[in-house]
Specification:
Blueprint (H helix, E strand, L loop, with lengths): L3 H6 L7 E4 L3 E5 L9 E5 L11 H21 L4 E5 L10 E6 L15 H16 L2
Antiparallel strand pairs: 1-2, 2-3, 3-5, 4-5
Length: 132
């Protein structure tokens, strides 16, 4: 059965996409720790990050870096945090979380954004990504 991320990649479930290439996609977490919380996901469904072949792993990190640089231009924050947890969805994903406080790296406090806020931020982030 395809993961929720595969369904997003295939367009079966809508998302707030901020970046995409042939191998990866980045979209906002719909239950974010902080404004701009983004997931970077390989299009090939693999459960665990260290099961990726070395080349794909390196390309995922390079993709996530570029998305983080775009986020940093758009979201007012002290830094972009990165986490790979992988327990909630059995499909490799890297969390990029704009941080002003360490509590924003925890997954127990969430922020709410409206559809308009998500879409505006996604558009700005996508534009920043394209301009890098």
């Amino acid at each position: 059965m395809p993961s929720i991320f595969t369904k997003i990649i295939n367009g079966e479930i809508p998302s707030y996409k901020v970046a995409e290439n042939d191998d990866f996609i980045a979209f906002f977490d719909i239950n974010p720790n902080a404004k701009g919380h983004t997931l970077c996901v390989p299009k090939k469904e693999v459960d665990k990050i260290f099961d990726l072949d070395e080349n794909t792993y390196k390309k995922l990190m390079a993709f996530a870096r570029k998305v983080a640089l775009a986020l940093r231009q758009v979201v007012d924050c002290k830094r972009i945090g990165m986490a790979v947890v992988g327990l909630e969805v059995p499909h490799v994903h890297v969390h990029l979380i704009p941080l002003n406080h360490m509590d924003e790296m925890r997954f127990d406090k969430k922020v709410k954004l409206t559809d308009e806020e998500f879409q505006n931020l996604a558009n700005k982030t996508a534009e920043a990504y394209q301009n890098l």
